[in-house]
Specification:
Blueprint: E1 8-11, E2 25-28, H1 30-40, E3 50-56, H2 65-76, E4 85-90, H3 97-105, E5 114-116, H4 121-129, E6 149-154, E7 161-163, E8 171-173, H5 174-178, E9 186-189, H6 191-194, H7 197-211, E10 223-226, H8 231-236, H9 249-255, E11 259-260, E12 281-284, E13 299-302, H10 305-314, H11 329-332
Parallel strand pairs: 1-2, 3-4, 3-6, 4-5, 9-10, 9-12, 10-11, 12-13
Antiparallel strand pairs: 7-8
Length: 334
């Protein structure tokens, strides 16, 4: 409830851009600038050029916010968004807040000043469900708004994706990657991009669906590690969830061979015991896979929690369909 639609929030972390999922402007300013703001009450910014992306078409099976943003970055190429402010239009109202959180968050990797979903019915419903009151008038783009770049992404064209080293934009359909039978040393779910309750639920739904088909444990010698996105999430996933037939997310994860760590993002930037050693490879739901990012000499691949969970069971990088799971929005949708 600290971030509200219509607000402007500078933060000392690049992923402050995630606030755009909630109809707010979130920008990363660095510790020095934020300290200046604390001392003086002011933070100075230059208004960025505007870029709009309209999401049209229908979401496809197993596609989440991670797949959408990887597809977007792959199309933008090496220049990415060139420091622009990116406004997203969810024309069909298909993207829930967790999906929007991932997309807005990864505008850091897109080299955008920020990303924002203007407040709409999806935003209002989320704040109402969580009991947070909206304090500001609704801020939406005017009819005369001008955009430096105006583009459309057809969601019908987006499949589950996997980004190969060494860029989030180096992304390919997961079914194509599965043909390569890429094995790995670690499968890791978490990060500020995909460590929320719904993210972990999507992984647990895949694991439970696979278990019903007789695929109940990880295949291979790789590690399967989960980092809840906060201490609160770590507690919440121990509670029974009706989507899992009364099991808890944590119980399903552990039953499939996963280890649940404390909430932190160390391996995302190559720190701690779970960082990659030279020559190691990992598939993760993290946000960055630049060279040496997850550990000097290691290789990071990026995907959604559902794809990481499916890969952990398969023993190679693959989407849930590779396990024989048939998409059912009632069973697997979040």
């Amino acid at each position: 409830g600290l971030v509200l639609p219509g607000g402007f929030y500078p933060g000392a972390d690049s992923h402050s851009r995630a606030y755009g999922a909630y109809g707010a402007v979130g920008i990363g300013v660095g510790s020095t600038t934020l300290g200046f703001g604390w001392a003086t009450g002011y933070v100075y910014v230059t208004v960025a050029k505007q870029r709009r992306v309209a999401f049209r078409g229908r979401l496809q099976p197993w596609v989440s916010g991670k797949d959408i943003v990887l597809k977007l970055l792959s199309g933008w190429g090496v220049k990415q968004s060139q420091g622009m402010s990116v406004e997203f239009q969810d024309e069909g109202g298909q993207l829930p807040i967790p999906y929007r959180n991932t997309i807005a968050n990864m505008m850091a990797e897109a080299e955008a000043m920020n990303g924002i979903f203007p407040q709409d019915a999806v935003t209002d419903a989320w704040f109402q469900d969580h009991g947070f009151k909206l304090r500001y008038p609704r801020v939406t783009p005017g009819e005369d708004a001008v955009y430096e770049l105006d583009e459309t992404l057809d969601l019908t064209s987006v499949a589950p994706m996997i980004a190969k080293p060494f860029s989030p934009g180096n992304a390919y359909p997961a079914e194509e990657v599965a043909v390569e039978r890429l094995t790995f040393h670690k499968a890791m779910i978490g990060s500020c991009t995909n460590g929320g309750y719904d993210d972990l639920l999507s992984a647990a739904l895949v694991l439970r669906g696979a278990r019903a088909m007789g695929i109940d444990r990880v295949k291979g010698k790789h590690e399967f590690i989960v980092f809840p996105g906060s201490g609160t999430v770590k507690l919440q996933i121990e509670n029974p969830d009706p989507r899992l037939g009364g099991e808890s997310i944590a119980g399903v994860l552990r039953g499939a061979g996963a280890e649940i760590r404390e909430s932190w993002c160390g391996p995302c930037f190559g720190q701690g015991p779970d960082a990659l050693d030279e020559g190691e490879r990992a598939i993760t739901s993290f946000n960055r896979n630049w060279q040496n990012r997850m550990g000097v000499g290691g290789e990071g691949y990026l995907a959604s929690p559902a794809v990481v969970a499916a890969s952990a069971l398969a023993g190679y990088m693959a989407p849930p369909s590779e396990l024989g799971l048939v998409w059912d929005p009632e069973a697997f949708g979040v």
